[in-house]
Write a structure and sequence with these properties.
Strand content: 25-35%
Structural class: alpha+beta
Helix content: 10-25%
Largest sheet: 9 strands, parallel
Low-confidence stretches: 1-21
Strand order of the largest sheet: 33-32-30-27-23-22-21-35-34
Bound molecules: ligand MIG
């Protein structure tokens, strides 16, 4: 019986044989096989030394570069010829000079550092990685493979790895779905996604970097390929994780953990970190499509000061321009922009303006004329200009992948900056084109001399636009920090800009989504991120808006924005009690600015993300792989937004250790969920025991008044805990010359005493003289305070069991005892 059943493969073989036997008269080519996926064969040779190794099956070649002890890069050349090594994400790949061991036996080739081994199996060219304890962390489930692309040339390139039962996945930028990507199949192709929905894919950014956590060990894969790319995390087949692209090279970095934090830091080592933003950029920003004419802009500015709601920036959306032509002004709406901006600056507001990549085809428009003369606009394969409709009408588009074009674009900001513009918002740079969505595939790009069609340049176009904006502004502003924001981007965009999550919706679902997206962006190498607070389209009610302000107060980038057809949307637009609560939270953000700024420094200098989901604190707890509401800002403040209307209380998971309820100073023990009341006035906020949280006085804007003293909120702990406090001028690049101050606080306590040590480094001296200490949670009644051997007699114990006193900022050891 059984022998009579042909399996499908045999049927296929019979069919193929027949096909091959058929000979067409005028096409006598013999032996050309149909295009199929090809897999690496058996590796016959392996050579290499230092940081570079090569393996071949006789035709295809695999390159392995040892970047450092934790990072190795794998590349595949299907017929032995690698593309020239160039990446917009990794500007400077410099392998570290370290000891690398190359080993061969009859089973495998092996390249090892002190932390990672890469195994190339001789039987089938499967590549796997293991750690120093020989635990396999990642292994091929199929040999790397490819399929020829006859239409465009090159190959579709594929990698398929094993996916384990409890393995979970994080990262990939702005995907609007659960934080944990297990079971999902996702695409990277920058897309203008107005009013996007839960699970819609792709959105605006392409970040081909993910983190896997399996049995408590994390590793990362950074698939540095700019073509349309796909990821499948056990979606199609529960036992396999795959990533593939429509062109370019199979080229990925294996990034060893073992902690997720190590992976993120190593990813930043490759792709860079965000420069220190100007301090004002951490304040509250107010945006709308659009504030015009000038009278409206002024009224909004006045509204903030009258309502005593802090705000640092007001945005001008596309209507400030003349017919949406970049670098022009609509003089009917804004007769004297320089004066308007100066007046706003006088009141403490920075003005941020939008630019779009579409340049109106108009010979009377100098920007178009110059771009045309100098051949700066993108062209189709047959040399026609790439033309498409966007806001200004018929447009052409600068090729931002050309260094000369970037230089030119950057220089165009001189007038805006002379007018006093402090920040530039880069929109529509997926690039978005009305009707067709984006450019056709045949558009050509310079790609910094490496050339490519839009298939290759699409995902980096927006990043190169904002790079041009950032670098140009940086030149014009000399030593002042530019502020830029972009919608589209690719890995590495964090070197040039902050991001917002695009055109979201005024709904509770989008509040939830925005919270996840910001955490995901943060762990995907994009620290300076935020959502349109309130939702771009649709109408939030007062409650939703307030809940969004509360979450937004803990988004690295805090901006309210709304579409043009919606009702007024300023923090006072909903009346009481909303206005007072919104004010309170925006004030809280301003009080926490020195803490938040310090978290940016930890990011910039050390590669830490700013927002950290709880899975990053306790990756070994499987349940945490599915938590996506609570996160920490830096590592001291845990926040859990309220994501449902009318919610009176909610569960919050606290990682192990002791936590202080920010509102009541009550102590909770972590490692489990606690139920926390959530009246409209508050959201759950907890401070880790042992933290020292520096605090500014409430200001209406950064720099409103000289800081006379810093409040130091010291939270008791019975174990040693470190905190960092970073300060500098807040607006120049002097920190690159070590003009900053980095303070380290060490807190330790027992049943009858608490000590606090301070150490300092750096060349910056802040202007204020003293600290106002607020010591919270002492388990004893304090009787003596000594600072550097001196007794402090002047202290008060307020009724919430908070001990308060003052001292100069230069202390080194403080002791409180009973
Ligand atoms: O086609 O400039 O996402 O924030 O207000 C819409 C107008 C263009 C899309 C941006 C949005 C902005 C709007 N822009």
């Amino acid at each position: 019986m059984e022998e009579n059943i042909l399996n499908p493969k045999e049927i296929l073989n019979e069919f193929v044989e027949e096909e091959e036997g058929f000979r067409h008269l005028n096409n006598p080519a013999d032996g050309i096989k149909p295009i199929t996926k090809k897999y690496l064969g058996v590796p016959t040779h392996g050579v290499g030394s230092g940081s570079k190794y090569y393996f071949t099956d006789g035709d295809a070649k695999v390159e392995l570069i040892v970047v450092n002890e934790e990072i190795m890069r794998v590349r595949l050349a299907p017929h032995g010829v690698f593309l020239e090594d160039f990446s917009y994400a990794v500007p400077d790949l410099k392998p570290k000079n370290i000891a690398v061991n190359f080993f061969e036996d009859d089973k495998e080739f092996r390249v090892s550092t002190a932390k990672v081994n890469c195994h190339i199996r001789k039987a089938d060219f499967f590549i796997s990685f293991s750690d120093q304890n020989n635990v396999i962390t990642s292994s091929d489930a199929k040999a790397m493979h490819w399929e020829e692309n006859t239409q465009f040339g090159g190959y579709y390139v594929f990698s398929t790895k094993e996916c384990h039962p409890d393995e979970n996945f994080f990262g990939l930028g702005d995907k609007p779905t659960e934080l944990n990507l297990r079971g999902k199949r996702l695409v990277n192709w920058n897309t203008d996604a107005y009013s996007f929905a839960w699970n819609q894919d792709p959105l605006y950014r392409s970040i081909p970097f993910y983190i896997s956590v399996n049995e408590g060990i994390a590793h990362g894969i950074f698939f540095d390929n700019t073509f349309k790319a796909h990821f499948d995390f056990g979606g199609e087949d529960r036992t396999k994780t795959s990533f593939w692209a429509d062109g370019g090279e199979m080229q990925y970095y294996y990034i060893h953990g073992p902690h997720m934090m190590d992976v993120v830091k190593s990813y930043h080592l490759l792709t860079g970190t965000h420069p220190m933003p100007p301090l004002w950029a951490l304040g509250y920003h107010q945006c709308r499509w659009s504030y015009y004419p000038e009278a409206k802009f002024r009224a909004v500015a006045k509204g903030f000061r009258e309502n005593k709601i802090p705000c640092d920036a007001i945005y001008l959306d596309i209507d400030y321009m003349d017919g949406y032509r970049c670098f022009t002004w609509n003089r009917r709406y804004f007769p004297d922009p320089k004066k308007m901006i100066a007046d706003a600056a006088e009141m403490g507001f920075k003005t941020v303006v939008i630019v779009d990549p579409g340049i109106r085809v108009d010979d009377n428009y100098p920007i178009f004329k110059e771009g045309k003369e100098k051949k700066y606009f993108c062209r189709r394969s047959d040399d026609y200009f790439m033309e498409g409709h966007v806001w200004p009408g018929r447009c052409q588009f600068p090729d931002f992948t050309n260094a000369e074009v970037r230089e030119w674009w950057g220089s165009l900001f001189d007038e805006l900056i002379e007018y006093g513009v402090a920040g530039v918002w880069n929109d529509m740079n997926e690039p978005a084109v009305f009707g067709s969505g984006t450019f056709p595939a045949d558009v050509r790009h310079d790609y910094d001399g490496y050339r490519g069609s839009h298939r290759k340049a699409h995902n980096v176009y927006g990043m190169q636009m904002v790079r041009a904006t950032y670098e140009g502004m940086r030149k014009i502003l000399k030593n002042k920090r530019p502020f830029t924001i972009t919608r589209a981007g690719y890995s590495g965009l964090q070197r040039y800009a902050s991001v917002w999550t695009g055109d979201n919706v005024a709904s509770w679902e989008h509040l939830r989504l925005g919270n996840i997206q910001c955490q995901r962006l943060s762990m995907s190498g994009i620290p300076f991120c935020g959502t349109d607070i309130g939702g771009f389209s649709g109408e939030p009610d007062g409650e939703l808006f307030t809940r969004w302000i509360q979450l937004g107060s803990f988004s690295p980038f805090m901006r309210a924005h709304s579409a043009g057809d919606t009702k007024e949307r300023e923090p006072w637009s909903f009346g009481e009690p909303f206005t007072a609560i919104n004010r309170n939270f925006i004030e809280l953000r301003y009080r926490l600015l020195p803490y938040m700024y310090s978290a940016f420094w930890e990011h910039h200098r050390y590669g830490f993300p700013i927002l950290r989901p709880v899975v990053m604190q306790e990756q070994d707890v499987l349940k945490n792989h599915f938590r996506q509401d609570e996160f920490t800002y830096g590592d001291k403040i845990l926040v859990c937004p309220v994501l449902e209307p009318g919610q009176k209380s909610r569960k919050v998971y606290l990682p192990k250790g002791k936590w202080f309820n920010f509102w009541t100073n009550e102590v909770e023990t972590g490692g489990e969920e606690v139920e926390v009341p959530t009246p409209l006035e508050t959201i759950p906020i907890f401070i880790k025991a042992g933290s020292v949280i520096p605090e500014y006085p409430v200001m209406q804007y950064v720099g409103e008044k000289p800081i006379e003293e810093i409040k130091l909120n010291v939270y008791y702990s019975d174990y040693e805990a470190n905190s960092f406090f970073f300060e500098d001028h807040g607006e120049s690049f002097a920190y690159e010359q070590d003009i900053y101050s980095e303070k380290k606080f060490v807190v330790n306590g027992d049943e009858s005493s608490l000590t606090l040590n301070q150490s300092m480094e750096g060349l910056y001296t802040p202007r204020y003289d003293g600290y106002h200490f607020k010591v919270i949670g002492l388990p004893f009644v304090p009787a003596t305070i000594t600072i550097d051997g001196k007794d402090i007699a002047d202290f008060v114990i307020s009724n919430e069991k908070v001990l308060e006193f003052k001292y100069t900022k230069t202390f080194s050891t403080l002791q409180i005892s009973k």
